[in-house]
Amino acid sequence: MHENLKQPLEINYSPLAKLIADRIQQQGAISVADYMALALGHREHGYYTAGNPFGAAGDFVTAPDVSQMFGEMIAAWLADIWQQMGRPKDVKLVELGPGRGTLAADIMRVISNWPDFKSAVTLHLVETSQKLRDIQRNVLKDQPVFWYDYFSEIPDGICFVIANEFFDALPVRQFQKMNGGWKERCVGYNSKSNTFCFTTGADSSV
Known about the structure:
The structure is a single chain. The chain has 206 residues and is α/β, with parallel strands linked by helices. Helices cover 35% and strands 27% of the residues. It has eight helices and nine strands. It has helices at 15-27, 32-41, 47-50, 63-66, 69-84, 102-110, 115-120, 130-139; strands at residues 2-9, 30-31, 91-96, 121-126, 145-148, 158-162, 175-178, 181-190, 195-204. Strands 1, 2, 7, 8 and 9 form a five-stranded antiparallel sheet that branches. Helix 5 (69-84) crosses helix 6 (102-110). It is elongated. It starts with a strand and ends with a strand.
């Protein structure tokens, strides 16, 4: 593999950085997707699992934190879709990456205006962070909630799926076209400079 040391990724000497560096030293360069999966979702040290980055006291604010109108509009839209579907009796409202549970709470509050719809809905949250689950449990304490680590764990049936600012945070694989072929972009580690750096893997058919 070829290390491109002109593009270093700063190491902040955190436990997570050491963990990733140790893995690369033992196994070789890892994909960008694997690197981001560890950085964002490591069970103990990941960005989304180790703390609460949402809201004014965190690193960023999303639409549900700005105004409850965001959730209210989605709730009204869901009610309309439900009626167009013939008012099914069993609907799973699924949120991917529910943050602090603010959006789900706003939606569930507003759909109470349609009692038949409210009685048909069960709330299902896909959340890997135990700390965020605890916050969601408190915010949604008046609602029965089912939690999952993976979307594939949700039982079959009619699902209304919402995912506010979720897909832009998913780890993705990256590829570069080089010398007429494609190579996967990876993350390596340079022990001399103690930096992460982009590198390329083997040829790929992707």
